[in-house]
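Issue: ligand-bound run for fe (ii) ion - logging full I/O for the record.

Environment: standard queue, default settings, no custom constraints.

Inputs:
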Amino acid sequence: MFIEKGPYLQKPAKNSMIIRWVTDVESTSEVRVYEGYHAQVPASKFPAYEEALVFSGEPGLLHSVEVSGLKTFQEYYYEVISEADGDSVISDKALFKTAPDEETAFSFVLTAENGGICNPSNPYVGSIVELIRRERPDFIQSVGDIVSNGMNAPDWDIYFFGPFRGLLRNTPFYPCVGNHEAADTAVPDCEMEKHYHNYENYFAVPRNYSYDYGCAHFVVLDCPSMFEAVNTSDSDNYITVLKPDFENSEAYRFLVSDLEASNAKWKFVVFHYPPYTSSIFDVPQLQVLAPIFEKYGVDVVFNSHAIVYDRSHPVKGGKVAKDGVRYILVGGYGDLDDWFREKQNGLSAKICARPNYVHVAITPWRFELQAFDYEGKLFDTLTLEK
Ligand SMILES: [Fe+2]
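Outputs:
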């Protein structure tokens, strides 16, 4: 037997972590956790002098074990073990780190569209994943399109679990629903609701969710669910429009109630379609959400979908304003200059059509963003202070 996917880390908290993996046959689920991290110690000596904390979960193909009772912002190393019919498999040891308290600095990386470019041998994926690994971020937040076609089971290995394997074993990954997580292009968006089964299977968070990490609050939305496809003629032509009752959608209601309840120092909202961008793939219908971000003091909205980089000036009421919200379109593993309009939209502060990822370092009083291309060249920065 062998481990098909993972192990990978979900829902990092101050005192717990969820560890998942997938085996080729139904088997037991056990995680051994060792306190302390001894990077310089030869592998043969790793756990010999320490007693493991042992956690177990339900048997199956997909294994999900919550390890709890841990110390805050503490490094641990772990291994996963599965057994079936006298056979067994054990993973290499890897490290994880629990989440910090509100006073502690941390960093995260934003990435998106590793699947959206729909090229299984896209060379930018390998180079960007390696650059992210070298950053040692505390976690990764995706902004969607993790796979090319979320309904297609092999896609999850081709675009995600394969190329991200070395990162996922020691870096928690927060997903986000894009248009590729559900359907292929043959299925109208209105049918997408039925096709999230792989996404919902692999990730320990729902499609709309939020979390606190240190002094920051993140709200992650399933924005495609706010749209529907309308047949414009008797042919198969569909246009995608905001649902007339979008204010009753789970995503919208969750956004409002969640932001209302948060007193975090920094507030970020993450969803796939970009309301403001100089790209031709903007989704201006989602500007209806802007008054909510403005009302509840959201610092930055992170979007994707257009496979370029685009950082706006602060925007309020559709115009640049000192106390506005910044919209940053991140990620994208493609070099797509023609996905920008010929001229910028008057809101963009920096655009770049190169494969990229974004690193953010946070303290309670400072936000430092750096955007890098696929060769590790820094091409944009943003610093905010409170
Ligand atoms: Fe997309």
